[in-house]
Amino acid sequence: MGKFTNKDIRKHKPCYDPIKHIADDEKFTLLELLDMKHIPPDDRIWVFSKLATERQCRLFACYCMVRCQSDKQAVRDFQTLVLIMNESVNHNADMEDLKDAADKAAYWAKAAYWAAYYAAERELQIDIAKYVLKGE
Prior knowledge:
The chain has 136 residues and is mainly α. It contains seven helices and no strands. Helix 3 (41-51) runs parallel beside helix 7, helix 4 (54-68) packs across helix 7 (122-134) and helix 5 crosses helix 6. It is elongated. It starts with 5 loop residues before the first helix and ends with a helix.
């Protein structure tokens, strides 16, 4: 897992300078950042979403969506989508399958983002992000 600095955060144009919470010369992993309790949970999730890999962001969105999703059919549909995406990663799915999976993933990622954004349980989302990072 790579180390990051405030310079990496600033590249994504945060609404305030990260020096408010992290010294400019401080290097941190995403796991370390997620454990920084002096940083508001919303800000830790925002930094995670900007600095994590695309795969980590997708997994995070998946776990948040599944947590928020009460419709069992949608969960089954999503599990099918994850299987198609895994097949596409392993080059076992054709381009049409990949396009369909990407379209559905974009929809669910957007839904998961908004569900996560408005969720009251930010600390749980931080735990989910840690789980995703530890699985890499």
